[in-house]
């Protein structure tokens, strides 16, 4: 079956520069509404990947996201939000971007074309067969990602990927390929739009469901979140008030003493 880059096909809209701002916004919104439906169709693949990740992480495994450009930035973003949201160390979900941290703000010439660098970066981080490598690329053709995934599979490491094109070279290197077909972008080939939105949704789904399975959420609350600002201290205090029936002052003192909602509640209950 021939590989067709749906994400690179011409926009369904023409003469964008002649449209009013309202028309542009409504057209983009129309396209964005297709993203959630495309992600919904990929849920069986997302579920399969999560179910393979959880037991690995329970044994000390990690998730590595790998991408270039927008895809790489979204992987780094999702990884960076795990410690404050779930109170996990920053070493458990790691985002790697072609070109390194410089590429978060500036394009790094030819970085994504290096087929060896991705695996070298994984080796530098002592990757093992308990870990999971998830490639992120709208096109499904990024050499930096594909090279790393090939080597990972050779070493018996679980691989997944998120792409906007079915039957891509990247998907061929994934044990569990997640293919969300969002269709052509509003600005032809601008994969930071629908493809990026879909990637963000799927990354949220993967890490949130994994963290819930690992016991980092209680009820529906972020009981392990880091208390890194006053807003979060207030939120945690109100969780303790609701859970234990204490007054606000006592709840806040308990929270600050123990450092997380879960530890505070457990200590109060004598666990």
UniProtKB/TrEMBL annotation:
CDD domains the UniProt entry points to: SIS_Etherase
Matching NCBIfam families: N-acetylmuramic acid 6-phosphate etherase (TIGR00274), PRK05441.1 (NF003915), PRK12570.1 (NF009222)
UniProt-listed Enzyme Commission number(s): 4.2.1.126
UniProt entry keywords in alphabetical sequence: Carbohydrate metabolism, Lyase
GO BP, one annotated term: amino sugar catabolic process
HAMAP family: MurQ
Record's protein name: N-acetylmuramic acid 6-phosphate etherase
